[in-house]
Amino acid sequence: MKYYRLYRKLKKMLERGVVKYNYNLKKFNTYNIKSRGKVVVLVNSLETFLKVMKVCEKEKFSPIVIGRGSNIILARKKIKSVIIIFSDRFSNVYKIDNSIIAESGAALSKVVAFATNSSLSGMESAVGIPASVGGAVYMNASAFDYRTSDVVKSVLVYSHGKIREIGKEELGFGYRQSIFQTSNDIILRVEFELAFAKKKDIRDKIAKVIDKRKSKNITSFPNAGSVFKNGNNYFAGELIDNCGLKNYNINDAYVSYTHANFIENRGRAKGKDILALIDKIKQDVKTKYGVELQLEQKIIGE
Ligand SMILES: Cc1cc2nc3c(=O)[nH]c(=O)nc-3n(C[C@H](O)[C@H](O)[C@H](O)COP(=O)(O)OP(=O)(O)OC[C@H]3O[C@@H](n4cnc5c(N)ncnc54)[C@H](O)[C@@H]3O)c2cc1C
């Protein structure tokens, strides 16, 4: 089946506005790269998601999943794939005792706000990470004293045609690492286990984290956070800086002047500009230090 026929089929089955054809993904990635996805599904319920997966599996399409697009590089102008987006339309958050349950499209900041209003502590330092719940688990996002892996209790996933719950011990968490990076399971819902605390203390901590983030003031240009992982004995940004690469550019893709482990889109950078800049950085660091930098960001549609 061709993409257009798949689109027509899904359109007939789903609510209006849920499935798009040749859709511009610029506002779905924080690099603001202009790239069009052949068939794009803006998931609005579990039921929609299951219907889409059933058709895709029958017709042999392998969808790509994205959340808030804050850690991805859209590699091409046109991405010939089905792209499933979990964002605001799939973002219910509720609580049971000291657990918060969130759909995978919920912004992490929404969960932090919900936790604060529920007097639940443990996620204050996640404020400012522009992740979806699914993306945060996939990447094991962390900041200051927060690690997603510390607060996740279980994850509801779509795995080979079935829905199942996976407990924390099976999630293979490590630095920017989770089982999902190899399993290809799709994260649908996450249970976070938090601790009751005074609202005032939670709010004070959040205010401090916001101040800390502001004082870093890394860049105002579109970016997707750290490009490379740090190593056991090096900071990627330091090695890149020592290679004299700050402000180095390929077309509108620049190595940030304020933090060398960030790449900025200072205009109309394309995925291929960012990828070429990544290659240049890797080469220079390898030549000078013999270190193979490991990419943290995920390439989509290569
Ligand atoms: C300004 C800025 C600041 C940042 N600060 C931090 C920080 O402090 N700490 C930190 O760790 N990161 C930080 N990041 C990086 C980024 O926010 C995190 O990596 C985040 O976890 C990505 O979440 P996302 O929803 O945007 O995922 P996306 O970028 O949409 O996707 C990332 C990967 O997750 C997969 N994925 C997403 N959702 C699902 C799902 N439901 N099921 C299966 N796979 C899925 C995608 O396929 C992709 O491979 C920052 C980024 C920016 C732009």
Task: Provide structural commentary.
- With 302 residues, this protein is of the alpha+beta class.
- The protein folds into three domains: 3-88, Uridine Diphospho-n-acetylenolpyruvylglucosamine Reductase, domain 2, CATH 3.30.43.10; 91-216, Uridine Diphospho-n-acetylenolpyruvylglucosamine Reductase, domain 3; 236-300, UDP-N-acetylenolpyruvoylglucosamine reductase, C-terminal domain (Uridine Diphospho-n-acetylenolpyruvylglucosamine Reductase, domain 1, Alpha-Beta Complex), CATH 3.90.78.10.
- It contains nine helices and 18 strands.
- The protein has helices at residues 3-13, 46-58, 108-117, 133-139, 148-151, 180-183, 199-216, 236-242, 271-289; strands spanning 19-24, 36-42, 64-66, 72-74, 78-85, 93-96, 99-103, 120-121, 142-143, 146-147, 152-159, 162-167, 186-193, 195-196, 249-250, 253-255, 263-265, 298-300.
- It has a five-stranded antiparallel β-sheet. It has a four-stranded mixed β-sheet with strand order 1-2-5-3, with helices on one face. A three-stranded antiparallel β-sheet has the order 15-16-17.
- β9 (142-143) and β10 (146-147) form a beta hairpin.
- The longest helix is centred in the last third of the chain and has 19 residues, at 271-289.
- It is globular and about 55 Å long.
- The relative contact order is 0.13.
- The model has no long low-confidence stretch (mean pLDDT 97).
- Bound molecules: flavin-adenine dinucleotide (FAD).
- The site of flavin-adenine dinucleotide has 30 residues, from β3, α4, β9 and β13.
